[in-house]
Design brief:
By secondary structure, the protein is mainly β. Helices cover 12% and strands 44% of the residues. Residues 1-9 have low confidence and may be disordered.
């Protein structure tokens, strides 16, 4: 043993021998790590190459197949109620320009198209039929800068049709909503006493109801909550008519001073005066001024599609265009009797001493409106409503052989020289009242008194009707009666 060390001899060799397994294990771990890294690099590059090949294949397939449809949106209710509604088709890549001739719609309807990147907009120029499956096929669709073409196709079914109407009871009157497909009375929207007139406007139901002295109270009812709000009419007036817009919140109101008794009688302050109320505003009915700045007295009025312009038939027989937002009033023509405006809001039907007439609302030009014979029988024309096309729905009277008795009927007439029957009352005992075409010209609602001889008036001071009055809804294309409802005043 060395005099300067306390360790036993040979201890260094022992330590080296002890560390040898550790070095061997570390070396093995390093070798395994290197092998794993090489394996990872090989897998990574193999996967990357595979993905690159797959991407190239997919790109090639895509370029060979042409664009595909990713999604589509359309409002299936509004497309039956208003023109110029859109089907929006989203493709998987930006599209080249597409012409309307490439689009085939079944059932057939005219369209226009626009392209914005991967979005293709198909705009329907006319309202579509309710509860109908439509197929839209776009042919020869190509992507920007690529030659491969494809066909894009989308199917959708429009919403079922329905209408709102008024059914009067002995003590309580009801406004109901009824689907065109089905049975029963429909769903009660609101019930109240003494309903004179009603008009649905953008989720609100407006009611004119009986008030003291033969006057009216005007109310708006939130159909979702039932909350009732009073609208402000001039004092002492009754409501003669409510004119609902196709869009927006402006409501036309025709009103007159209620008749006074005894010595108070005199010149009424209001007589068939046109007013307007913004249901989104303060609820005040304002008088619409005429050409001379005074009141505008009207027999009838209709809104144009913008919801802010009206066509009115004045008590002086003048047809006028009224811009409610600006106050501009433009005379169009003189017509003794007016029936209504066409579904596309371009023409007005009416009558003069020589029979029916059609007035072009842009030019003021007139043309005759003579009914075609029905099953070879000559007919006298009455109230007529025009569709967006050439077809018209018209009430006619057919004389018997003696010429002293007339049978009334409703016909569809395209002016080709022969008309077809839509409706006549059983045994010709009844009478046909007001007509109302659905916005898409698919149906016509007729107010029918089933038996004139047995009819009894409901005794209402304002807007009285026979107690037996019935709504008959007829499919215009087929002449089939689709619904019969006890009530009147249909609103589509």
């Amino acid at each position: 043993m060395s005099p300067t060390s306390s360790e036993p001899s040979g201890s260094g060799a022992s330590r080296a021998a002890a560390r040898a397994p550790d070095r061997l294990a570390a070396h093995s771990r390093q070798l395994r790590a290197e092998r794993e890294q090489r394996r990872f690099r090989r897998l990574f590059w193999m996967l990357s190459a595979g993905l690159a090949v797959a991407a190239a294949v997919l790109l090639g397939v895509s370029s060979l197949q042409g664009p595909r449809l990713s999604s589509a949106t359309v409002d299936t209710t509004r497309v039956t109620e208003q023109p110029a509604q859109q089907l929006r088709l989203f493709a998987n890549q930006p599209l080249a320009d597409i012409d309307a001739a490439q689009v085939v719609v079944t059932p057939e309807t005219p369209v226009s198209t626009t392209v914005d990147g991967a979005l293709l907009v198909v705009q329907f120029e006319q309202r579509l039929h309710t509860d109908t499956e439509y197929t839209v096929e776009v042919r020869d669709v190509t992507a920007v800068g690529r030659g491969a073409s494809s066909t894009i196709e989308h199917r959708f079914t429009t919403a079922p049709g329905e209408l709102v109407y008024l059914d009067r009871g002995e003590t309580v009157d009801e406004v109901l909503r009824a689907p065109l497909a089905g049975a029963g009375r429909g769903e009660v929207v609101h019930a109240a006493e003494g309903i004179q007139h009603m008009a649905p406007v953008e989720g609100v139901l407006v009611l004119a109801r009986d008030a003291a002295g033969g006057t009216s109270v005007l109310e708006s009812v939130q159909t979702s909550s039932g909350v009732v709000q009073n609208l402000r009419l001039p004092d002492g007036v009754r409501v003669d008519a409510l004119i609902a817009p196709p869009v927006g919140t402006l409501l036309g109101v025709v009103f007159s001073s209620a008749p006074l008794e005894g010595e108070q009688q005199g010149v009424p302050e209001y007589a068939s005066t046109l007013g307007v109320v913004d249901l989104a505003g303060d609820g005040t009915v304002a008088v619409v001024p005429g050409l001379d700045g005074g009141q505008l007295a009207v027999d009838q009025g209709w809104f144009l599609p913008d919801g802010t312009t009206m066509i009115v038939h004045g008590r002086d027989q003048t047809v006028q265009r009224v811009e409610l937002l600006t106050g501009l009033v433009l005379p169009i023509d003189q017509v003794p009797t007016a029936y209504g405006i066409s579904s596309d809001a371009t023409r007005l039907t009416g009558a003069d001493a020589f029979g029916g007439i059609i007035v072009d609302l842009d030019s003021g030009e007139q043309s005759r409106l003579d009914p075609s014979p029905l099953e070879g029988e000559f007919a006298f024309g009455g109230e007529a409503l025009l569709t967006a096309g050439e077809l018209r729905v018209q009430k006619i009277a057919i004389p018997d052989a003696s010429g002293g008795v007339f049978r009334s009927a409703l016909i569809a007439d395209d002016g080709s020289g022969a008309s077809r029957l839509l409706y006549r009352t059983p045994d010709d005992r009844g009478s046909l009242g007001e007509l109302s075409l659905s916005p898409n010209d698919q149906y016509v609602a007729i107010e029918v008194t089933p038996s004139v001889e047995d009819a009894q008036n409901d005794g209402r001071v304002v807007n009285s009707r026979p107690t037996s009055i019935t709504l008959v809804i007829v499919d215009v294309a087929s002449g089939v009666v689709v619904r019969t409802l006890e009530g009147f005043s249909p609103r589509w």
